Amino acid sequence: MSRSTEAKPVQPGVAEANRAVLRRFPFDDTRDLEDARRGFMGTAQEGVIRDAGGRAVWDLGAYGFLDQDCPATANPSLWRQSRLCSEHGLFEVTEGIYQVRGFDLSNMTIVEGARGVLVIDPLLCAETAAAALALYRAHRGDRPVTAVLYTHSHVDHFGGVRGVITDEDVAAGVPVFAPQGFLAHAVSENVYAGTAMGRRAAYMYGAALPKGERGQIGTGLGQTTSTGAVTLIPPTRDITHTGQTETVDGIRMVFQLTPGTEAPAELNIHFPDHAALCMAENATHNLHNLLTLRGAQVRNPRVWAHYLTEAISLFTAASDVAFASHHWPVWGRERVREFLSEQRDLYAYLHDQTLRMLNQGLTGPEIGERMALPPALERAWHTHGYYGSVSHNTKAIYQRYLGWFDGNPAHLWEHPPTESARRYVDFMGGADEVLRRARRSYADGDFRWVAQVVGHVVFADPDHAEARELQADALEQLGYGSENGTWRNFYLMGAYELRNGPVGTPTVTASPDVLAALTLDQLFDSLAIRVDGPRSWDADITVRWNVKDGTPVTIRLRNGVLTHGTGGDSTPDVEFTLTQADLRAVLLGTLPPAALAARDDVKVTGDAGKLTELIGHLTAPDPDFAIITP
Question: What is the tens place of the pLDDT at every residue in 81-105?
Fold first, then answer.
């Protein structure tokens, strides 16, 4: 059987479910569209943003198809949200504050000062940030950047910084503000689980999917991730406490620290002279993730709700507009208070009701199926699960409190997926019988069940062409019906890879700047998690690094574990006396051990070959690992 690579038409049941969405919600409410377009000043003349080599990293016109009526292959609520997110250009938020929206996944905010501008959250890559700043200057004049502020530690809020300032600017006194702990959190994701997160992000954001009514239409938070150069300039001034005030270039700011909300290091900012409140990514026009589908540590909705309550108390009486690092602003003091209050109630409700139900013995999947929002919250468009979802957020809360195990001993030691799949298929009468029954379920519109059961056939026999095709078809229908942008992308990416093969990781965040910001401890940790444990059980190698103008560090590979510390409980097999720059180069893999030992300014005592032997026990992460197949 030849394998189809084309997207399929929508099935009748999905089309009808999408039509029902139109009847259920107030699509005649145009306030969000009016707000998304309010203050529009213009957009870029050139629709494609390219890197220095001419490669396209962002296409402003890629989502022009969203101007048409919603097709049957998309959930109308998600189509509406994506249409709003696709508005691109320079927008005036209030006098002296501007946003460039639609130039990346996130927004770049520009606050005018006495001499220049403060740039808040310079997007994900240098190319889009430079284009955003150029657009601002085309309309407001060639003002210098006099400060940069990162609201939090996610890459789409700092990765474009070298598109707006340089190291020379910082050396000349341009400050870079960030919440306390920003740098450690910003780079740590790229050390420990960055490869896995990046690969899963390919599914979450769907950057490799064709854009269109049967493909990628957005993520709910923004459209997708840009694919340019991710950069990082470390902060020079930390925000350490709520109530801290700073003035730069005449711009007065009052800060609220919000650690453990949408990011482990995050802050909100009030601009008292503008009666404006920046909510970072703590209050956006969707239900956010408590556990992002690309993978992360579970966020705390109780803390999130607490900080929203605090923001309401601290700032709303003096805020005529609230804006964020995604989506569009909310104007009017009463609307700002209502918006933040509903966002607060959203996270608090999910937290409290999940705890209520888990204490009644329900499991994560059961809670996810049973959870329903209060009608007053569900009626508000900004509470819809375009990015996070009620379903996966409630499972995340369950995971935060109780972990992966649901308490049923039958689930304590299950076979891994491939072994389970082979047994399931055998018990169900073989692949042909499974597919025969699954086709009947597909015709009945039970696509969730088809994806679940045919997934066993694919994992039992990943080359089974009919199983792959039916699995792709079922996932595609689930995508067509999803209100959640990341769910749609996950489903359609699964279908795409089943039909076309893996796409890898389109957006790479472990850039030279990010790696340069790693501490030596983090670099040693990055080696430890690459040790092939079973192959290293019998190895016992000790290397001491005598860092010039630094503290000696000893690493030891023993029992399949690479440890490091300033002491040492064994005689080293080799000692290197070297600069920290050379040590970092070795740990990053840019300076081979043989080349290190040959350097005139490096002193080697002992068997230099032991370092080569130790490095031989390391494995490389795989950015192309399989997801939809074993």
Answer: 999 999 999 999 999 999 999 999 9
C-alpha 424/C-alpha 96 separation (Å) is 63
Amino acid present at 312: I
Q: Which of 106, 102, 218 is nearest to 483 (CA)?
A: 218
Q: Minimal CA–CA distance to 588: which of 529, 512, 537?
A: 512
Structure tokens at 362: 């329900």
Q: Is the pLDDT of residue 522 over 90?
A: yes
How many Å apart are CA 595 and CA 593, to the nearest integer? 5
- Per-residue pLDDT at 478: 98
User: What pTM does this model have?
Assistant: 0.96
Strand-pairing partners, residue 80, are none
State the burial class of residue 168 (Cβ atoms within 10 Å of its Cβ: 0-12, 13-18, 19+): exposed
What Å distances lie between residue 570 and 256, 528, 555, 567, 609, CA to CA? 48, 18, 10, 9, 18
228 has pLDDT over 90? yes
**Pick from 489, 504, 506, 496: nearest CA to 471:** 496
Rounded Cα distance, 557 and 519, in Å: 20
Which band of pLDDT confidence, cut at 50, 70 and 90, is reported for residue 3? low
Q: Which residues pair with 119 in a beta bridge?
A: 110, 148
Task: Count Cα neighbours of 630 within 13 Å in the Cβ-side half-sphere.
Answer: 17
